[in-house]
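Q&A log
Question type: sequence-to-structure
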Amino acid sequence: MIHPSAKIGENVSLGYGVVIEANAAIGDRVVLKSGVVVYEGTQIGSDCTVYDHAVLGRPPQGTGAMTRKIREDLAPLRIGAGCVIGACTVLYCGTTIGQQTLIGDLASIREECQVGDHCIVARGVTLNYHAIVGDRVKILDSAHISGNMIIEDDVFIAPLVGTSNDNSMDRSSADEEYKGPTIRRGASIGALASVLPGIEVGEYAIVGSGAVVTHAVPPKKLALGVPARVVGNVRPEWLPEGVEPASDDDIE
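Response status: OK
Response body:
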């Protein structure tokens, strides 16, 4: 079903059972596989491929069980040119996806998120509301990115990383601001690590697998353990060309 007001570009391929709602805009050479649902106003750039049963531009809907108020004036979903959107992925309205970005099967990206260019958001990843992701970021399978989290350019987040934005574990008032971690440019977070609310991981720092990060990690430092402790500097050969190695300060 295609609404008469939808704009469809040239050489677009539509699978069985595709639904395109009012005022959606589909660029040239887009491929929408079977069962894809494109909600009202969603914009898909040219040369994108969207795999089966993806849901694009879904509006959020809450119940009385929620403490966070959901906005009702969200802009339509926008997907940049050259993206690949995996099967059964759900992308909410109010979110923007950059160009040449891969969103894996079963991923969920909530409202008001920003994902940059040339990123990988892999299979089963969740980006909660208002998460900001820079360019060339890799977030691997089944990682959870909390609401109000910032991830700068060139960050690597390994599989099953967990992040959070609520230290009280739902015991605070509805008016309290939830703040997720901030992961600075070029940092890496190892598999199964947990990063607590409001924590900053500095530029080019590395957090080891299984670590629980309860305090800030300085730039270009290596943090390991439960709770995580700075144990050394990131090796100079692991830093980009032109980035000076860290000093021995801040090593516990």
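Response note: The chain has no helices and 32 strands.
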